[in-house]
Amino acid sequence: MVGVSHECDFPPDVRRLPRLTSTRLDTTRPSREIDHEMATARRSGVSPIDTDADLLARLRPDVVIGQSLCDVCAVGGSELERVVAGLDPRPRAVTLHPHTLADVLADIRTVGEAIALPERAAAVVGELTEGIERLRAQARTGRRARVLVLEWIDPPYVAGHWMPELVTLAGGCDVGSAPGARSATRTWQDLERLAPDVVIVALCGFDVSRARREVAAVVDADAGAVLRRRVEFLDGNAYTSRPGPRLVEAAELLAELIAG
After folding, report:
1. What secondary structure letter does DSSP report for 106?
2. CATH classification of 138-259, choosing from 3.40.50.1980, 3.30.420.180, 3.20.20.10, 2.60.40.10?
3. Hey, is 111 helix, strand or coil?
4. Global confidence as pTM
5. Are 112 and 120 in contact (CB under 8 A)?
6. What whole-number distance in Å separates Cα of residue 144 and Cα of residue 44?
7. DSSP 229
8. Residues with Cβ within 8 Å of residue 3, at least 6 apart in sequence
9. Model confidence pLDDT, tens digit, residues 105-157
């Protein structure tokens, strides 16, 4: 590996590698302001992510891996193709777009094939599949807690994609979304009508300390009724926002939080 995106921070060794992307978003600002910036960027058609094409050319990668799931975190598929097309020699571009756990496992195999390590990828998929099956066997068969997972606070976004599957593996029943569905914004009144037993706050791109600050900023407003229920926090940046091997560990942590 010769370079990473501005979001890459795990495993820790990757932090020493050159950063090939940057964002114009000020992520220190409150959630509402970040969301407004993103909405403005979408309307203008201008991505908030910049790529250092000159550095990419100097690094001369054989393969460039990107994703088209979220335009906040990384360069989208069309932009990646445009950047790669200007390089000589031209590397192979691999764009990932997972929505479910099965998609994540398939993408691991795709990456393994792209970097000529299919056997290693197959081994990783095997290990993760064993973990998934172990969790499925352990999940309680009686009444399942009604779980609402929030990946953004202001405005509130209900976590979709692979999160409902993780909740099921953890022994809960996701009342806010369905497996593979996109994350979506809802009103606090709608969320209260879902009557969750527990609210899991796992904010996209933020750790637990930041998530607690975001919740504190809205708890006395319209969000109060929802957030006065049992609320648990999970490091979304580390465990749930990224479609990779740590999703199984995320399900294990969710099981502990749901059980209380």
Report:
1. H
2. 3.40.50.1980
3. helix
4. 0.92
5. yes
6. 44
7. S
8. 17, 18, 19, 20, 55, 56, 59, 61
9. 999 999 999 999 999 999 999 999 999 999 999 886 778 999 999 999 999 99
